[in-house]
Amino acid sequence: MYIRDMFASKKVVMSAEVFPPKKNGMLEGVIRALKEIKPLNPDYVSITYGANGSGGMTTADVASVVIDAFDMTAVAHMTAVNMTKELLEERLQMLMRKGVKSILTLRGDIAEDSRFYDFRHANELAAYISQKYPQFELLGACYPEGHPEAENLDADLEMIKLKTECGVSHLVTQLFFDNATFYSFADKAEKAGITATVSAGIMPITSVQQVERIVSMCGVQIPTKFSKICATYQGEDLYKAGIDYAIEQIRDLIDNGVKGIHLYTMNKGDVAKAVFNAFEEDRK
Predict the structure, then answer these.
(1) What are the angstrom distances between the C-alpha of 156 and each of 101, 150, 192?
(2) How many other C-beta atoms lie within 10 A of the C-beta of residue 189?
(3) pLDDT tens, residue by residue, 221-252
(4) DSSP string, 175-230
(5) Would 53 disulfide with which of 12, 81, 91, 129, CB 3.0-4.6 Å?
(6) Which of 51, 78, 86 is nearest to 138 (CA)?
(7) Domains in the chain and their CATH numbers?
């Protein structure tokens, strides 16, 4: 099933993201996570692409496991960094053979040895795929607080709209901890003429180290309420408080009409279970 069909037929679309191993063939960790996620009946599972454009083969392998071994819908990530047309053709052919129907197009994170060959931005990747392989459904990313490299949110919204004009029909947000930020973004996106459906990206934070890493990588703003949680709790107490905060976020989003929730699981099946189980009634 395509993601667009899920949004047309379901009250709430809840999805989960996993990441493949850095080394080819070492799938035990992600398979263990998928075994715990499968009973939760996520509407789809997205599989990230390796840093700096590496790991496309492993992403495809995990997507194949999601589809064939666990009978779930898979969304494979694809990045523009270090991507040539020849390599993209190879990757797309492989995804078709493995039964993948949906692709999340991204620019990808940039490292010192990053290079741009035939594609520099996610919209260029989307335009190529939609023109040559229209059978693929295309998803894209967006940042409720604005892309860190964008001049401002208005400029970023112009780029997001360009993605949709290049074939992206569904957007998944970067994680955020303040729902007011998401509501403001959604309102501005609608006014900018962006009609793609949007899933709100939520990551349950279960350790202080995780917070520090996320802030340094993504520049996400930490609201006072969440800062107090991190300062007050530690260990198992912080683990529970982080999950409770994520559940509170999602409850508020659903109650305010948000139809898509995308959970960044970090391959933690127990975290996914705690969150998904809190919304069984909403998904019926």
Answers:
(1) 27, 6, 11
(2) 22
(3) 899 999 999 899 999 999 999 999 999 999 99
(4) P-S-HHHHHHHHHHHHHTT--SEEEEEE----SHHHHHHHHHHH-----HHHHHHH
(5) 81
(6) 78
(7) 3-283 (3.20.20.220)
